[in-house]
Amino acid sequence: MSGFNNEFTSEDPRCPGALPEGQNNPQKCEYGLYAEQLSGTAFTAMRHENRRTWLYRIRPSVIHTPFQKVDKGLLTHDWDAVEPNPNQLRWHPFDFPEKKQDFVQGLATVCGAGDPKSRNGIAIYVYLCNKPMEDKCLYNSDGDFLIVPQEGTLNITTEMGRMMVEPNEICVIQRGMRFSVDVKGNTRGYILEVFSDHFQLPTLGPIGANGLANPRDFLTPVAWYEDREVNEYTLVNKYHGHLFAATQGHSPFDVAAWHGNYVPYKYNLSNFMAVNSVTFDHADPSIFTVLTCPSLKPGVAIADFVIFPPRWSVQEKTFRPPYYHRNCMSEFMGLIYGKYEAKEEGFRPGGASLHSIMTPHGPDLECFEKASNASLKAEKIAEGTMSFMFESSLSMAVTPWANNTKVDPNYFKCWQPLRKYFNSNNKDAAKKK
Ligand SMILES: [Fe+2]
């Protein structure tokens, strides 16, 4: 595993020396803190994959009332509620909420597959919110969240510290970590949840030691605590695809120091070093993989997070936009800002598309005609644009909400006008348009 097996240490400067030296769990911690371990992998996971963090906190996290099931809104893992639908799907930008709702209340499942109980699967959400989580935090027992803000800044407080995550940045908050999201105004984005494993950097093979997303650009929070008594602080726990709530009388963000390698992180997508063909033809879109969550089969991902950043396009003798394609993987795409080259109309920021396993897709008429006849000079493409793909080896189903919300019924029409150029008597038929 590359990237995140570094051991980090962090101490809130208000408590110098809070980190024990030379051991993890002393008989008495400094400043009267409690020691608590958060395990992100099995105790016995291979050393290079082992993930855990030691937290030195004001109170252990076990002090809370029993969990009670609460309303989960549009969050669901029921993949059988809608008849299977293999069609190309495209969603117009998802609407901001009319009523006040926070990040947890604004989680809406779009599609997914699998099951957190057997720890194999994924869920894709959009979040639509407009108010902060007040004296309330969430932790996810089911998997890891990869969060892609599209509109509005997320000010996230975690047990390991605080992160400000803006559109064109992403963050990962792993299983079990308590976090609270503060937002101002209309806020929208996408989430990829994986139930099985953690995200990691893809291997680089012949690319070498540098390139794509470089490890040094992933930022982790620094320890920050608040010693705050609260009448009723609500802990929300996502467990088996449902939400449960418990209360406690204090802020859960009471960690004065921590060390370990199981920590949330953020990454600015503009730091991605794109690699592509400088002669002819296409590299497959996997060349743009930022993070991957591997399956047990080598080389096959449960899910990849792939971006299509601004870059130079220089290939000679080549149809440069994405090729026509049928895939043994599912492709969910979103647009953070700008215009996606293969479909300049219809696919808009805050919207999405889903091309399911073996469902054909590719450039629309306008893109095909334009790119087939364009002069192949070096040009900057996707300027002012950031689109992304969650690509999964799982066959995803959509939820009732996604099936009835903002679906573009005309999506299929963008390919219908593609013309036949074939002429068995004229090898140059396509060249004489
Ligand atoms: Fe594709």
TrEMBL record:
Q: Which pathway does it serve?
A: Amino-acid degradation; L-phenylalanine degradation; acetoacetate and fumarate from L-phenylalanine: step 4/6
Name under which the protein is recorded: Homogentisate 1,2-dioxygenase
Q: Name one GO cellular component term.
A: cytoplasm
Question: Binding positions for homogentisate?
Answer: Y340, H361
Catalytic residue positions: H282 (proton acceptor)
What species is this protein from?
Answer: Elysia marginata
Q: What class of enzyme is it?
A: oxidoreductase
Q: Which residues of the sequence carry a binding annotation for Fe cation?
A: H325, E331, H361
Give the classification, highest ranks.
Eukaryota, Metazoa, Spiralia, Lophotrochozoa, Mollusca
Q: What does the sequence similarity comment in the record state about its family?
A: Belongs to the homogentisate dioxygenase family.
